[in-house]
Records
---
Amino acid sequence: MEIRIDHGGAEEVLKKLDRDEINRLARKVAEKAGDEAVVHEYTTDRAAASVSVPAELQAKHGVLTRAAAEAGLEIRLRK
């Protein structure tokens, strides 16, 4: 079976996501990741946010990965 991603459709959906909801989710991940987590809210052609932790915390303990999963995000390994 072959799956093809509709990039245009995905882009349309992403552009319609509410900035407040995206930022709320990023803050939820950061809260679960701990005191050293930092949220950066920004806008490109769509609302966006990033959450970061010190590299050592992620490398040794997977803090950000666990926090994202606990916040309900789907975590997958890249192939």
---
Amino acid sequence: MFVNDNFVFLHLQKAAGTFVVDRLVQAMPGEVRDGHAPLTAGKGGRTVAAAIRDPWDWYVSLWSYGCMGRGEVQGRLTASRASILNRTLRVVAAGRMSPGAAMTSLWLDHDRDPAAWRDLYATAEDPERFRRWLRKVLTLPGCGHLPDAYPILPMREHVGFMTFRVLRLFTDWQAWKVESRSIRSPADALDFYRRCGIVDHVLRTEQVEADLERLFNMLSLPPPPIGTDTAPVHRNQSKRHQHTGYYDAETVALVLERDRMVVEAFGYVPPEIAA
């Protein structure tokens, strides 16, 4: 995230956040810290901005980034069981996870097949591999292998991983800690976001430069110049084709069902798939 005394930008993975942070650093004083972490200290009267992405495009980007051998999700899904066990024990020892939550997480991980996940990341040129990967990460038991607290929350059965990450980042942290276990459906997720959201200004990845310009105007800041040697470029980009080419009708409907909160809260529409 990017933070100063008056402003916070929350960095959702795979939503042009690195590009936005680079531009913010050029435009105003502040500190880059805590990566993709939520705002645990609360708004404190500050203006909060965040970037969102079309959910169908987000999943393709997340997968294709993994096909490059990069990203927390790919690392978690393809790691050896011994590595996950050791990592979990370290987290418990550091006090960042309760022993009960650790036992649940390890139990959900018992049937994960790292080799099968590695095969799904073999190439970003294969739409069928993407569809198989997507079905696994959006349904049990595959979604129980994902990182963060998502596998141990009841929402995993009916609410998509993108929605989980958006809620965890875009809502009041104290409310999230109290209510996250009561979110069991996309309707619950949307209700929680509408009641507890903390984001004042949303930037869309699809039009991030224009939305950034509007944000700078709102903050009464001159936007840093684009097209100079010091201007940032989009980084952490995944290598793949247009996202619509990776979907069929079934997987379009699956994202619509599981991530309906993101679709409805931010006004996205399903992609049209050629017959």
